[in-house]
């Protein structure tokens, strides 16, 4: 299995009709008796705002049953008890990190971020196996390299919360990749010669929401590029082959009319160029 794209933005923000990844709701299902205790979780999903901004339940999904399948799958795929619970703890850690973003308070004239109540930070640190005070310091006063020296820079509450969100998404992605790597280790025989490859390409992900973030825009852009590539090579070129062979065939237009939308992203001074410039000089352009 190969991971190409994990939609991480959904981990920290969901639209009203979206649901976060099912793994979080599986953890809260009480299927594994001691799981909540080990992951320092309460009994209410609404206590964790990162994963409760959108839909909490889906009629066609049984979270308890899915948790049973997942728990059994970890055992079948050769995960040790420690490895399995580390995956669960990393997943729960992200839920606690969402609550931690609400704990930053501004202090002083420069609104320096600090944490007064460190209960959520302590849970994050416990699950991650790190020192809570060290973690809080690096979120509130991150170190930057200036020349050959490292200096501490104060963060505002919004910057500190954004840093926590970024780390939370990274932790989830790395945990996801570790699971994939373990599955590949278990399922693949390294002595076998790879002679075939099956690729599953999802190009039907073009969505328009009330709020479209940067990641969704990029997903839509890539999907449209893939769709046109697919149409060109699977249909248009195939039809040209039919014509060359003299087959009785009526050409079908498979829709190449969104090239102008792609041009709005790709051309000089188009969206991607503007996004790049804004990211390089975010303050001066406001």
What are the key terms here?
286 residues, mainly alpha, two-stranded antiparallel sheet, globular
Task: Provide a quick synopsis of the model.
The chain is mainly alpha-helical and 286 residues long.
What does this structure look like?
The chain is mainly alpha-helical and 286 residues long. Helix content is 51%, strand content 6%.
Low-confidence stretches: none
Mean pLDDT: 86
Q: Spatial order of the strands in the main sheet?
A: 1-2
Q: How helical, in percent, are the residues?
A: 40-55%
SSE series:
HHHHHEEHHEEHHHH
Q: How much β-strand is present in the residues?
A: 5-15%
Category by helix and strand content: mainly alpha
The global form is globular
Describe how the helices and strands are arranged.
Blueprint: H1 9-12, H2 22-27, H3 35-38, H4 63-76, H5 81-100, E1 104-107, E2 112-115, H6 119-128, H7 132-140, E3 143-146, E4 149-152, H8 157-187, H9 214-244, H10 259-266, H11 271-280
Antiparallel strand pairs: 1-2, 3-4
Helix pairs in contact: 5-6, 5-8, 9-10
């Amino acid at each position: 299995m190969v991971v190409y794209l994990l939609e991480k933005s959904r981990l920290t923000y969901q639209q009203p009709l979206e649901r976060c990844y099912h793994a979080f709701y599986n953890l809260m299902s009480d299927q594994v008796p001691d799981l909540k205790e080990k992951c320092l979780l309460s009994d209410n999903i609404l206590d964790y705002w990162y994963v409760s901004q959108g839909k909490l339940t889906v009629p066609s999904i049984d979270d308890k049953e899915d948790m049973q399948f997942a728990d059994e799958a970890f055992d079948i795929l050769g995960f040790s008890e420690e490895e399995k619970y580390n995956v669960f703890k990393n997943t729960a850690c992200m839920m606690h990190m969402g609550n931690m973003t609400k704990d930053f308070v501004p202090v002083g004239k420069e609104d320096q971020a600090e944490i007064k109540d460190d209960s959520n930070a302590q849970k994050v640190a416990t699950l991650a196996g790190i020192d809570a005070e060290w973690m809080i310091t690096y979120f509130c006063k991150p170190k930057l390299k200036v020349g050959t020296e490292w200096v501490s820079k104060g963060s505002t509450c919004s910057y500190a919360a954004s840093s926590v969100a970024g780390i939370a998404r990274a932790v989830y992605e790395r945990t996801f990749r570790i699971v994939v790597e373990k599955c590949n280790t278990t399922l693949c025989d390294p002595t076998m010669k790879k002679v075939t490859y099956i690729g599953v390409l999802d190009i039907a992900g073009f969505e328009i929401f009330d709020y479209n973030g940067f990641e969704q825009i990029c997903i839509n852009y890539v999907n449209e590029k893939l769709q046109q590539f697919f149409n060109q090579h699977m249909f248009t070129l195939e039809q040209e082959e039919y014509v060359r062979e003299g087959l009785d065939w009526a050409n079908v237009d498979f829709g190449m009319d969104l090239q102008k939308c792609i041009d709005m992203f790709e051309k000089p001074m188009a969206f991607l160029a503007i996004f790049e410039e804004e990211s390089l000089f975010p303050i001066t352009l406001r």
